[in-house]
Amino acid sequence: MDSLITAAARALAMGDPLGALNRVALREDAAALALRGIAMAQLGDFIRAKALLRSAARAFGPKEAVARARCVVAEAEIALASRDLGFPAKALDAARATLEAHSDFVNAAHARYLEIRRLLLIGRLDEAERRLADLDPSPFPPASRAAHELVLAGIAMRRLRTKPARAALARAEAAARQARIPALTAEVESAALLLGAPAARLIARGEERPLLLDEVEALLASKSLIVDACRYVMRERDTTVSLATRPVLFALARALAEAWPNDVTRETLIAQAFRGKHADESHRARLRVEIGRLRRMLRTLADVSATKQGFALVPRHARDIVVLARPVEEDHAEVLAFLADGESWSSSALALALGASQRTVQRALDELATKDKVQSFGRGRARRWMTPPLPGFATTLLLTAPLPGG
Q1: Which of 294, 232, 231, 242 is nearest to 264 (CA)?
Q2: Burial status of residue 133 (CB atoms within 10 A of its CB: 0-12, 13-18, 19 or more)
């Protein structure tokens, strides 16, 4: 590796893409193309970055399998940063195997972290946790250790385990300081801010207030009967009844829980559960049927008793009933929640993360765009969606040394 390539690689490792470009911007050899691609990705030009990395992979000779594999890993990281979650996992897995076979364990581990972070984004926590358990970060450089701890923190936060999450973020912060990569430190700080941001709302006895993540964790461990509007379940300690596939029953349960200990009139229940403006006899008959179904599903947790005006929820063991709701509830709130991470998402990636069809997600994005709540850039398959305003600088990729061509 010549001196300019070495200096450009060091600049990238320190989070200085402009310094790297100053050294290799006019070069067309394979190593320079790879470094230029990584630099452009760090600057946020993902389309140009992908093109450069693919050119570099083609330019490396048949005996440079490791360099080509590193280009695949870098392209996979660009896909993750640009929320292109449809990146071929087999290509990344093959690149990781090549790196391991040639004893490039640092970049092989980085490839694993990319796989795990993708699993986190699409909600496959169990698989992410299993794969992370196979990795020992201690032999790796600080940037890799920080990435490991960030993944641990992400899993812990999604599992509502705030103490392990804080501990992992503290270790990530220490590793990021040691790595001296400003963008990595910023990513750790951004993750830590999530612990201080409202994660949900508590609705009880006619009042509501925001809850932090540790408060949500404490609530779920309490003796309250919780109507969880984030996961569409009712829970009390270790007992959980899912109503995710029964939206009418969940709407009834939530209306009754929000009014507890008071009752809810039949007209109000019909309006909320059936969207009926005027309650006629057919609506009342349907309400009786649905209330009967709700009684059967909640028999271990609560009873639904009839009152003179309507119905009331009566807990069997819990001391009170509360509703755990999302911080913001509006049309297409799930889409907005994913876009709130500040990254640009494709509609296909959102569909994969939400478990919905791409057409459904596209309709939601179009509707949100007409209300100026989201905005897009690019066209066709390159089209990406974000919440405005667009950030001036993209998230820097956590690429670890040695870099392509090393």
Answers
A1: 294
A2: exposed
Q: What is the dihedral of CA 269, 272, 274, 276, to 10 degrees?
A: 90
The alpha carbon of residue 249 and the mean position of all alpha carbons in its chain are separated, in whole angstroms, by 28
- Kindly indicate the confidence band of residue 354, based on its pLDDT and cuts at 50, 70 and 90: confident
The domains found in the chain, sorted by start residue, are 3-195 (1.25.40.10), 200-325 (1.10.10.10)
Supply φ then ψ for residue 64, to 5 degrees: -105, 55
What separation in angstroms does the CA of 20 have from each of 39, 240, 282? Answer: 7, 54, 72
User: How many beta carbons lie within 10 A of that of residue 238, not counting itself?
Assistant: 5
Please tell me what DSSP assigns to residue 85.
Answer: T
Q: Which residue's entry shows tokens 């909640």?
A: 298
| pLDDT range class, residue 163, cuts 50, 70, 90 | very high
The CA distance from 351 to 171, in Å, is: 33
Residue 139 C-alpha from the chain's centroid? 28
Q: What is the CA radius of gyration of the chain?
A: 25
Count the helices and strands in the chain (H runs, E runs): 18, 11
User: Per 3-state DSSP, what percentage of the chain is helix, strand, and coil (rounded to 5)?
Assistant: 55, 10, 30
- What DSSP designation does 285 have? H
pLDDT in tens, 181-198: 887 888 888 888 878 888
Q: Is the pLDDT of residue 396 over 50?
A: no
User: Helix H segments across 102-226?
Assistant: 105-121, 125-133, 142-158, 162-179, 182-195, 213-220
Report in angstroms the alpha-carbon separations of 191 from 147, 173, 183, 300, 334. Answer: 12, 10, 12, 38, 19
In angstroms, the CA 263 to CA 281 distance is 20
